[in-house]
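Training component of the fellowship. As part of building independent skills, the fellow (R.M.) carried out the full modelling exercise for a liganded target. The chosen ligand was iron/sulfur cluster. The inputs are recorded below so that the supervisory panel can assess the work.
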Amino acid sequence: MANTPDPQTSIPNTLKAMKDQFGREIDYLRISLTDRCGFRCRYCMPQEGVLKREHAEILSLEEIAEIASAAIECGIRKIRLTGGEPLVRKGIETLCRNLKQQPDLHELTLTTNGALLAEKAAVLKEAGVDRLNISLDTLRQDRFRYITRCGDLSDTLRGIQSAEDAGFCGTKINTVLIGGFNDDEIPDLVNLTREKDISLRFIELMPIGEARIWPKSAFLDAATVLQRVPELEPVGSDGVAELYRLSGTAGTVGLIRPLSHSFCRNCSRIRLTADGMLKPCLHSDMEIPLRGLHGNALTEAVKDGIFRKPSQHHINRDGISGTVNRLMSQIGG
Ligand code: SAM
Ligand code: SF4
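Fellow's submitted model of the complex:
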């Protein structure tokens, strides 16, 4: 069983994917390139944004590449760039090119709010980014402005179109399901999969960061999607998402259910914060400082973080039983 400690597990020093203390293979690293973002999504960031850090407090692109390289040496095969908003980080395309030169990296992906994507999609494609996830919580301009506090729906829609024009395939649209905010749009959002071969994924709102004190009514079980659109048919799963499809359509609808169906047993991720902390679990305050480490000391610290990954989170709609001090935008969702 994945969550039973395996006394045989040891920290290997080979190139193959490493197992944590519970026997899970860890091959996926999410890197937060910056805490900053042009949006202020109400569930993610306070209105005033995050405390602005000095440039020197944030990992340089060279430091990120060095840590990524050490992680690849420890068996990481997939890297997702995120944030904050990764596209506000200058030089992101240079980092992408650099990461793509690593032969053992199988996939480089990026999560974005799409606001700057229209100007960046082609260069990201050329720099080797394999796939994009674009966040889109509503199809209504007034609601988009409300939830992001300052975003413009048309920018994100243009970004989605630009990704297609630049030749990105398999783009995923991520929608955080929020009771009383966008649950009445479920059928409209699902309808997007009729027109385009997209993968639309409904993600359960998690009670972390700003959403920590939101009312229970905002936290909907993603199964609500199946009640509102009963004609959705199950078509398997894709990593953390349960997949469904409307009959005869190209696109799919995914449900990502960290609260109602914890996927900790199969979790293969670790995270790197913009200030150089390795976070083995999104919902734990365990952090391993990597900044300033090089060579063997760096790979050993990464291995230590992988090995000590906690077995599971303890969150539910009522809140978190641990104490996660960082905002979602600071961890890199
Ligand atoms: N700025 C980029 C974006 O919005 O796609 C990347 C960073 S953002 C933190 C990554 C994802 O985390 C977004 O899809 C966002 O909706 C999601 N997210 C942020 N706070 C969340 C929360 N409390 N519960 C669930 N998802 C959350
Ligand atoms: Fe920015 Fe993404 Fe957080 Fe929204 S969810 S405030 S776009 S980091």
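The panel noted the following from the submitted structure. Residues 37, 43-44, 82-83, 85, 111-113, 135, 174, 176, 203, 205-206, 208-209, 211, 328-329, 333 surround S-adenosylmethionine (ligand 1) (CB under 6 Å). Confidence is low (pLDDT under 50) at residues 1-14.
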